[in-house]
Design a protein that fits this description.
This protein is α+β, with helices and mostly antiparallel strands. It has 2 domains: 150 residues, Immunoglobulin-like; 80 residues, no CATH class. The chain has a 5-stranded mixed beta sheet, with no helix packed on it. It starts with a helix and ends in a 20-residue tail after the last helix. About 7% of the residues have low confidence.
């Protein structure tokens, strides 16, 4: 279902936007181009499990321009795609305005999510899109939409892919992911393209499991097998 949603959203923006790549964008255009730093297929899981003692928490979404920084502040626009969003109104707060500050090429949009009882049983989806403004044209179509899955439950994140299974963390389980979050100080998302980041996070879990086993407190999965990671380095 998630892949189907991404496919539909990508087609929609491919039809409505020229879809230029970064290499195709000319700096002498009347406008600079704006896009999200993440691709549409890289949807994000935001879990309140990382923030157990709060009723609301912030999620940071990055946008960047393709072009030259300006000597003045410029506004860009992010809208909620209601047809592809099931997060109730009032449970998220967007900034009143979005500004790419003078001299900058990247801006961080801070979204506030509110914890609700239903998030403990079901994940909700917030789908955002960039819109053209007087200051900015739209960049490549596959970086104009951001999908954020919000919950207070454990579920397999998109980044825990086959490479993570084979090279780093091993087979996924809810127990392993919950322990991963705890050991990594509430971290729920990992940039798997950053080898140093995924290695550091994996080693923290590996060393914890090793220490527990050495203290005769081996951590087991629900099926009774010892919890392990795939990474063999140290």
């Amino acid at each position: 279902m998630r892949k189907y949603l991404i496919y539909i959203l990508f087609l929609s923006f491919s039809w409505s936007v020229s879809g230029c790549s970064e290499d195709d964008i000319k700096l002498y255009s009347d406008k600079d181009y704006i896009l999200f730093t993440k691709y549409i297929q890289d949807s994000t899981s935001f879990s309140f499990l990382a923030y157990p003692n709060v009723e609301q928490a912030e999620y940071k979404l990055e946008v960047k321009l393709i072009g030259l920084p300006s000597d003045k502040d410029r506004e860009y626009k992010i809208s909620v795609m209601k047809d592809y969003t099931d997060t109730p109104d009032g449970t998220y707060i967007l900034p009143e305005k979005f500004v790419m500050e003078a001299g900058q090429v990247v801006d961080t949009c801070v979204i506030v999510f509110k914890k609700t009882p239903e998030l403990s049983s079901v994940a909700r989806r917030l789908t955002l899109c960039l819109e053209e403004t007087e200051d900015f044209a739209l960049g490549q179509a596959d970086r104009l939409v951001a999908i954020i899955n919000v919950s207070n439950i454990i579920f397999k994140p998109d980044w825990w892919n086959s490479t993570v299974v084979k090279t780093w963390l091993g087979e996924y389980s809810d127990m392993k992911y919950e322990l991963f979050i705890k050991i990594n100080d509430g971290k729920v998302n990992v940039n798997v393209n950053d080898a140093n980041e995924i290695r550091t996070c994996t080693l923290k879990l590996k060393n914890y499991l090793k220490q527990m086993a050495e203290n005769d407190q081996t951590v087991y999965e629900k099926d009774g097998t010892e919890m392990k990671v795939a990474y063999i380095g140290g």
